[in-house]
Design a protein that fits this description.
alpha/beta; seven-stranded parallel β-sheet; Rossmann fold; 7 strands
Length: 190
């Protein structure tokens, strides 16, 4: 049997990081999250989320409606805890991994399991996921104009005095995914 080139058949995994509670997000942030999910699926990539409500949920919805694959990483240790204790959804995901690592441990696994991270709106947990991805030197897309941390991270990066990172700032969901895919390919071939 011929051996497959391992990377040729593996799909890129894109993590969408964003606010579970979206009251502070821009009015169109959920719609843009759904568009991001759809664009990830249409590009043939896998969407990875924190298996939560809000921005990640709407990204998962967009990806599934476009025929994509969605994997969630839950902070809970079981499906029962995911649903009953954390009160998190299970729909729009093909697979949910129950990490049992609470939110901070889940965030580390979530960003490290992805080839790139997209930040949409967000609060403290989103900032945590962003800084993990930044420290890991991952390609990052920041969907600007969505409120919350997405509209603050450029200033944070500048004040941190650690260089620009591999960050794309873009307000258009489809263009964001296209630019991020080019950056992932560039990194892969470097």
């Amino acid at each position: 049997m011929a051996r497959l080139n391992q990377r040729k058949h593996l799909k890129y995994k894109i993590c969408v990081s964003g606010a579970a509670e979206t009251g502070h997000c821009a009015a169109d942030a959920l719609e843009k999250a759904e568009q991001i999910g759809r664009a990830v699926a249409e590009a043939g990539m896998v969407l990875v989320t924190g298996a939560t409500t809000g921005i990640p949920y709407w990204a998962a919805k967009g990806a599934k409606e476009a025929g994509g694959i969605v994997i969630g990483l839950s902070p809970a240790a079981s499906e029962a805890a995911h649903v009953k204790t954390y009160k998190l959804p299970t729909d729009y995901h093909d697979l949910i991994v129950y990490t049992g690592f609470e939110y901070s441990g889940r965030n580390l696994l979530l960003t490290r399991s992805a080839d790139a991270v997209i930040t949409i709106c967000g609060r403290m947990g989103t900032l945590n996921e962003f800084t993990i991805a930044f420290e890991d030197n991952k390609p990052i897309g920041v969907l600007t104009g969505t409120g919350g941390m997405a509209d603050e991270v450029k200033g944070i990066v500048e004040k941190a005095q650690r260089g620009p990172g591999k960050i794309i700032y873009e307000p258009n969901p489809k263009k964001m995914v296209e630019k991020l895919l080019l950056l992932i390919e560039k990194e892969k071939n470097a």
